[in-house]
Amino acid sequence: MATDFTYSIRTTRFDEDYTPSAGSRITTNFANLARGERRLQNLRTALTMIQNRFDELADGQSASRHRYAVKLDIVSADLHLDADESAAGVPLLEMLDVQILDTTTGERIAGITGNNLSSYVRDYDFSVVLPAHAASGIPGAPSDFGDLHAKLFRHFVESPAYRERFPQPPVICISVSTSKTYRRLGERHPVLGVEYEQSDYSMTDRYFAKMGLQVRYFMPRGSVAPLAFYFEGDLLRDYSDLALAGTVSTMETFQRIYRPEIYNAHSAAGEVYRPSLENQEHSATGVTYDREERSRLAVTQGRFVEEHFMTPYRALLDQWAAGRAL
Predict the structure, then answer these.
(1) Structural domain count of the chain
(2) Are the beta carbons of 220 and 227 closer than 8 angstroms?
(3) Using an 8 Å Cβ cutoff, are 191 and 220 in contact?
(4) What are 197-244's pLDDT values in tens digits?
(5) Which InterPro entries does the entry link to (predicted)?
(6) How many CA atoms lie within 13 A of 184 on its CB side?
(7) pLDDT digits (tens, 9 = 90+) for 117-137
(8) CA pair distance 201, 319, nearest whole angstrom
(9) 240 is in which domain, residue-wise?
């Protein structure tokens, strides 16, 4: 029955020994780093960048600059279309769970779950549905664009499987949009830094809004460009400075690797900022990454999702979604 949707969760440590599983999205941030001849060097460089950035952001939390160590787990969620969780599930999404290890006391401090969001249905929406809609000559996106993804995401976050493992809802942190202009505000946070705003929400902003997530934009202390944070509740009060530092150090590192024109630029964003991937004044990080390959793989992956999930289970998914409000 459609009402029997359940979820199972497994975690994989993201360290220099990480190898993507067969169920991992081939375009996800961490899988990209762990492929090819330079996989070990890529992973070591990225993990060192994350730790060094965390040390900078957490320098006021301890007399010892290197007291805390960032530990990352990949959270993989499978969707079970009936009540039998022992049967193989359908890969739904992957996120990162950040934990902070106090190397002095041995205590593990909870960080933030979410960070990136690698979603198979989102691949389908942006790589299959949206291009098909654009090809029809109709501007914008379909009126129900992202509805199924949003309902599955909310159902997962509210599920016993998620709540038994994670005390707080996910916070997603990604790049700002290259099609929007951002203006600096007066808000300043010890970790998140200065806040920016923009009044014309992007398609991604609206997509995440359907998922129940609001957005704020901050350029963290020591950064050169703002990041977009999608969250429930109160971003500034619900999470400790250490937890926020874990998310910033992790996701800023990925963005410096994947979008160096923006996040590894030679000059920082000003009062008014329009990010651009055409910016030539930036530095490479030394991590091998093929952005064009990732774009091609995203389309391939979207088609795979269409063939193996959306098409065969369309009637069941539609029946389930019809009974759930956004």
Answers:
(1) 1
(2) yes
(3) yes
(4) 998 888 999 999 999 999 999 999 999 999 999 999 999 999 999 999
(5) MesX
(6) 15
(7) 888 899 899 999 999 999 999
(8) 30
(9) 2-322
